[in-house]
């Protein structure tokens, strides 16, 4: 978390409800995605490389979403058409998320905000943060999981722009993949009954 | 699908219930994981490389599961300890799955079997195929999603064993990643209410 004035970005504030995941369960999840100390080092390096490229990365991701009617649908307003203000507000938080993903301490404040982001993809909280009236009440779980691919695949060229060796770029990319999958896993929690998560 | 005599492997048979996914929705999902014709070509090449290494790959995956109590738990018998026969029966189908993943035609028979595999990870069908009495009634969704990482990360060295160029190994690996994420996405369907999938 860094101090920001991004509208609706509530990381580290009391507005964020506690994550239901225990420390022990989270440790097992990290173990399952093979996330270790080496990966943290590579994530920090990735943060250095990606920081100055955040807007260019968002251009690629927003370009992909905008080119796919079934995806941009989730950013629709009351009339069912893309809501430019909604897209713009989420874009700012998405940029911050890139930085946060690379800087993650995996502490309780981080876990709580993962819980919040998960909720913001479900009917429980989608549209609330930006006060949007949208024809899309939630993001379907299928796309949340499927998005692991575009969010991981498209980052590689940006990681390669930092002058690191091919081996280091591969290591940063592998760490990014683990970090993204870990987060999507946490975000899936409010989609299901507690007993099956 | 290939003709096999693997116990409990019912791909392409009338015992498999139809997948609820429409062709149109499946096309959008493939588009979302960026899976194109080039990837199919690379998956076929991956199949050539991985085919003779299936047992060695399963050794790695089973080694990982066996080394983690929270994972091997799902293969427990009535006494809560790992059931060697259950592990062995699933292993055969898992080996066939590697071949099927590389040979996938993405037709209705394939989709129906994805639905079946998803169900076999939930309480609806887990333990039924092998007539097992287990203390684990279902695989928790968190690990199903998290497993995208080990199943993707550990395959790379095996892909590199086929004498292909580094660029081709990367392309096969990228295609494998898309194929695995696509399948886990489909398998998540029986975990959630139809409206949120
Ligand atoms: C790997 C998968 C995904 C990642 C990493 C991701 C990331 C994010 C982030 C960081 C935010 C802002 C969180 C905040 O408020 O601080 C967000 C919100 C949002 N995302 Fe995603 N997202 C993913 C999948 C998707 C998909 C598949 C869609 C559908 C197109 C989508 C649509 C949205 C929408 C509409 C919001 C705003 C929700 C609200 O009203 O607050 N996301 N996402
Ligand atoms: C990427 C994620 C995963 C993949 C690709 C995968 C693959 C498979 C395959 C191919 C089968 C056999 C399907 C058939 O019957 O033909 C299977 C069954 C099974 N898997 Fe998974 N699996 C994944 C995640 C997991 C996880 C996280 C666990 C927990 C350790 C797990 C435990 C099991 C068990 C216990 C069975 C037997 C289910 C039954 O009773 O029929 N799987 N899996």
Automatic annotation (TrEMBL), chains A, B:
Database matches in InterPro entries: Globin-like_sf (IPR009050), Globin-sensor_dom (IPR044398), Globin/Proto (IPR012292), Protoglobin (IPR012102)
Residue ranges of domain Globin-sensor in the record: 23-193
A Pfam family annotated for this UniProt entry: Protoglobin
Protein name according to UniProt: Protoglobin domain-containing protein
Species the sequence originates in: Nannocystis punicea
């Amino acid at each position: 978390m860094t101090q920001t004035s991004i509208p609706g970005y509530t990381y580290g504030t009391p507005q964020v409800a506690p994550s239901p995941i225990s420390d022990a369960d989270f440790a097992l999840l990290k173990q399952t995605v093979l996330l270790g100390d080496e990966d943290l080092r590579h994530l920090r390096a990735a943060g250095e490389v990606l920081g100055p490229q955040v807007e260019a990365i968002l251009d690629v991701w927003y370009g992909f979403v905008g080119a796919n009617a079934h995806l941009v649908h989730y950013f629709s307003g009351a009339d069912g058409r893309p809501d430019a203000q909604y897209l713009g507000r989420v874009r700012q938080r998405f940029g911050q998320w890139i930085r946060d993903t690379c800087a993650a301490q995996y502490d309780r404040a981080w876990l709580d905000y993962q819980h919040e982001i998960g909720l913001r993809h479900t009917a429980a909280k989608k549209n609330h943060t930006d006060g949007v009236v949208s024809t899309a009440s939630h993001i379907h779980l299928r796309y949340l999981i499927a998005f692991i691919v575009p969010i991981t695949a498209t980052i590689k060229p940006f990681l390669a722009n930092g002058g690191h060796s091919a081996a280091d770029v591969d290591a940063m990319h592998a760490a990014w993949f683990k970090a993204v999958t870990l987060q999507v896993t946490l975000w899936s929690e409010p989609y299901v009954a507690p007993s099956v998560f």
